[in-house]
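Dear Dr. L.,

I hope this message finds you well. Following up on our conversation about the binding site, I have prepared a predicted three-dimensional model of the protein together with flavin-adenine dinucleotide. For your records, I am including the exact sequence and ligand specification that went into the calculation, followed by the structure tokens. Please feel free to forward this to your student if that is useful.
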Amino acid sequence: MGAWWAGLRARSLAEELERRLPGRVYTDPAVASLYAREPSGLEGRPPAAVVLAREPGDVSLTLRLAYKFEVPVYLQGSLSSLSGSAVPLDEGIVISFEKMSRVREFSPVDGYVEAEAGVRLGELNSLLAREGYMFPVDPASVAVATVGGAVNSGAGGLRGAKYGTMRDWVLGLEAVLPDKRGSVIRVGCRVVKCRQGYDLTRLIVGSEGTLAAVTAAVLRLARLPRRVVVAAAFFPELEGLAAAVAEVKAAGYEPLIMEFMDAPTVAKAVEYVRPGFEAAGHMLLVAVEAADCEAVEVLERLSRLLSSHGASRVYTAPSMREAEPLIKLRRAMYPSQVRLALEEKGPGTLVYVEDIAVPPSRLVEAVRGVRSLAESYGFEVLLGGHVGDGNLHPIVAFDPRNPGEAGRAEQLFREIMRLAVKLGGTVSAEHGIGVLKREGLRMELEALGSLRALELMKQLKRVFDPKGILNPHKVVW
Ligand SMILES: Cc1cc2nc3c(=O)[nH]c(=O)nc-3n(C[C@H](O)[C@H](O)[C@H](O)COP(=O)(O)OP(=O)(O)OC[C@H]3O[C@@H](n4cnc5c(N)ncnc54)[C@H](O)[C@@H]3O)c2cc1C
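The resulting structure of the complex is given below.
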């Protein structure tokens, strides 16, 4: 009865929205089903309506009515989340920001750009590059990831070792609250130094669409690096690679990119991309900025450093363009696991990307630990990540229709999270908690003796969203 009433309310709201926002609301089930599935294969409930918002007023109206009808609302950019944070779990309304894609203001003097939620990070960077700037947070999904999605998932990416995550680059936000009035708030500043009471901007960053609907963000800018040189080394021993990571950092290179894949993963990636050069062993990819006049010398020094830790092969490239074959090999990690999964297990297979982080000094223990866990649960795991900041992405494929296999996979993910916490790390570095890591969040806070923090999070959720209509069942449900 409860679900029946909830469905009826959602469909009534959908009709009301169709009337009030003509041409901006889609209720066709075929369209709605496109907004119910994440790339991992995780599937939710098709919404009763998809609102393609064009301005903050559309978002405000939708949230005001959703409050009145008590209907869940799910906020989406490109739906590329990997944690189950963007899929609708109940019948409700999706607000998609894909049509809110204006860059409102670009101020190089003040060092910021203001962009609407639906601007894709890749497009933003193409625009900024023309002026010699960049927005440095670059998830591997940069071609599709939107400003709103990246802000709310607290995204990181390949340049995380040097530039951190969204948390470090958002100056201010325009957002709509799920309250009686659909209130629009503006928090944060257009200046780097900003003490505006409690930091609501940072609270909303990474809140996974559970606190407020972000309609625009003021983002800090970075200058485009003048020149980037790249070295890729292949190590027979993990210990050698880990020592090289430590020394590259200690030597003050401040790598822009520091990526890793372990030897079995390199072998799969080679099979997938056939790179045309010899690649075997544990791979470390390092990109550093260098002035034109010192590029050759920096590469030589880097190359010597990597070899001194036992790298059996080191390739160097004097620019990002020339490094493309090396970078392509690293990027092949996810697609090669997807292909493997489809070949071996057939369609319907889920490919989950884990997202733990450990202090970089615990890398060897983490890699060995994940491999041994995967073996004991009988799974092939591909393992790599953004090693400069200790973020590892074990990738595991499993068949959710096979209850035994799904159960073992769930247990494996739980154990991997437990390992990360034991090593002083975290269960999620950049993908967020979503639905997949709620238990992990509890586990992590419990290990810190801080379950009270979880209670505070639940209270904050109620302050922002008194009726619990925004992305329910996610993060701290
Ligand atoms: C191949 C692949 C590689 C990836 N690599 C990385 C990586 O390197 N680093 C990384 O961090 N992530 C990565 N991701 C995950 C994901 O792409 C990023 O987190 C991305 O920033 C999400 O953007 P999106 O627009 O698709 O957001 P969505 O998936 O649509 O949404 C993400 C979250 O934000 C919320 N949200 C979306 N828009 C709004 C809004 N306007 N207001 C409030 N809440 C909103 C959603 O409800 C959801 O909780 C990868 C994903 C894939 C498929």
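In brief: Residues 24 and 52 are 5 Å apart (CA to CA).

With kind regards,
A. P.
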